[in-house]
Amino acid sequence: MKKQIKILIVDDFSTMRRIIKNLLRDLGFSNTYEADDGNTALPMLKNGDYDFVVTDWNMPGMQGIDLLKEIRKDQALCHIPVLMVTAEAKREQIIEAAQSGVNGYIIKPFTAATLKEKLEKIFERIQ
Amino acid sequence: MSEQLESLISLAKAKELVALLECDQIEMANEIITDIQSASSDALFDKVGVLTRQLHDSLEDFQLDTRIESLANDEFPDARERLNYVIEMTDKAANRTMDAVEACLPIADSFNDRIQQVMPNWKSLMSRDLQLGQFKELCNLLDDFLQVSVSDADSLRQYLTEILMAQDFQDLTGQMIRRVINLVQEVEVKLVEMLTMFGEAAKPLNKSAEQIKEISGIEAEGPIMNASERVDVVDGQNDVDDLLSSLGF
């Protein structure tokens, strides 16, 4: 797992972004950036050679599920792994996310250990 | 219909009417019919009158209920403000806590660094294998360590108190949310009153609201408060993992 990879954290609550940022730093990933919804995130992704996206689902503006679909549609972005970290817990939603090409799905509230485990799993698969 | 059907004309009157028509007494026959009609239309007018009065009274009551006015003008904006305030307070508490944690981490790191510095000479001392020069070095390191530890311990205590104090939002936001819950409850009662007042008209509305809910199966819903009581949601990360692995993840 390369620790210097560039990660975009997308969540409308700044505290949640801060928590994820801190947890990622604890795991050795300090090259992190933040966006508060899909509309802010998408142009950042298009211009910023990001390696990884952690996104919430429920956000004003563009929601996380739509951001995921946009990423998968875009030839330049479709290879980026997307980890969803959300309170959305309906089975239908999780299936929708899986079918849209999500790489991992973490339900809030979550623990540092869960985040670590899911990240490791995603990187394992990619390599 | 459980009510017994009542004829609009009595048998005696009908017989009288037939007799009159048979004798060609048209004028008197017409009179009987007019009498019957006016009797039933009088009853109808009475009923319409009663209904009009009821409707009038209901609307009057509705307008007189100043509570509804104050709900719309004051309480709702107030509730919105309260909820915004809850977001603000929880935001502040979370940041206050994280500030303190971030300030504690380097203290823990330097604590560990200093112990690592002292450790080699300390181990030598414990195994009675320490030269005089090393002993002096150890004393200096230990002295330094003790001095710094006093102020570090004090800082840690302050940050921990800060974290403790930052949790006070729970009490305050709890009270605010409780007030909003009371308001919602009151509005619910008013809405039920309105629905009973307008009775049947509200039923089709109910159905369409349900239909809308059905359509939006993947619509964002936010945190689920009663996950264990619902079949359409997962209950925790293990459920998510099971579902995903059943999809071949």
TrEMBL record, chain A:
Principal location: cytoplasm
Subcellular location: Cytoplasm
UniProt xrefs under CDD domains: REC_CheY_CheY3 (cd19923)
Keywords recorded for this protein, A-Z: Cytoplasm, Magnesium, Metal-binding, Phosphoprotein, Two-component regulatory system
Cofactor(s) the record lists: Mg(2+)
GO biological process, one term: phosphorelay signal transduction system
Family annotation (PROSITE patterns): RESPONSE_REGULATORY (PS50110)
Positions carrying 4-aspartylphosphate: 56
Span of domain Response regulatory: 6-123
Highest taxon in the source lineage: Bacteria
UniProt GO MF annotations: metal ion binding
Keyword rRNA-binding applies: no
Cellular component terms per the entry's GO annotation: cytoplasm
Protein name: Chemotaxis protein CheY
